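Sample 1 of the test manifest.
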Amino acid sequence: MPELPEVETIRRGLEPFLVGRVIEGVEIRETRLRRPLSPDLSSRLTSQRMERVERRGKYLLIGLDAGSLLIHLGMSGSLRLSPRETLPRVHDHLTLRLADGFLRFHDPRRFGLVLWSADPTHHPLLDRLGPEPWDSGFNGSTLYHATRGRRLAVKALLLDQTLVAGIGNIYASEALFLAGIHPARVSGRIAEKRYEVLVDAVRRVLDQAIAQGGTTLRDFCDEQGRPGYFSQSLNVYGRTGEPCHHCERTIREVRIGQRSTFFCPGCQH
DNA sequence: ATGGTCCCCTGACCGC
DNA sequence: TGCGGTCAGGGGACCA
């Protein structure tokens, strides 16, 4: 479910509620996530003060007195704050009890991940991530040189988290539309200038999505349960058969790397 | 190394 | 109403 803009939306929402608060208790109801919840999670977190709420790619990091809590939401994960103790819903796998509220991790498909790390910046999961989309290390020249001789479709390239962190299936299609690049185009045959346009498009689409609180297609909600509004700004994702906002041609759908991919045959080449 | 395929899991939806 | 098939915002293991 959540890509960078959705995780950033959650991060911004959680930050003022969590920073400075102490985790008073931990309740684990289901340990079978993408990686099993560690048995020592409770002892690592209890009595710890939360000092920072950060994001790296699609990972959320909650900095504690000692170490960090590292959270990935997978396809269906969400975090929810509530001021009082409510009955846990089905798929509420983990609850952190604070002095004045509760933070619940909810994930029906259980592709998500919650773990404690003493040194998250050097954790193998984060270590392999490429630059943030706004970092100078993500630029046309790097993309150009990284793809020479490669046969991978540019759409699949954007999903490679080691190249740039945070882009998922929605924003890959949307960025390629803004850049005017056909998603199936072979990445090794794209000119440097076009990669510069693509980098700019990625940043614009992510900026705009964050500004609108992310994209809600089915069930994405922020930490208070509110949906995101970028769905209204989607140009191609999920719009198969509908007219392009720009040229009126019919939006088409193809499969690239087992994932649905959307594009406008008039605007993208 | 690269890129394609399959799998993890639950729920929603569609056609019969 | 029920049933089977398909698909979903992610990522990693495996294979040629």
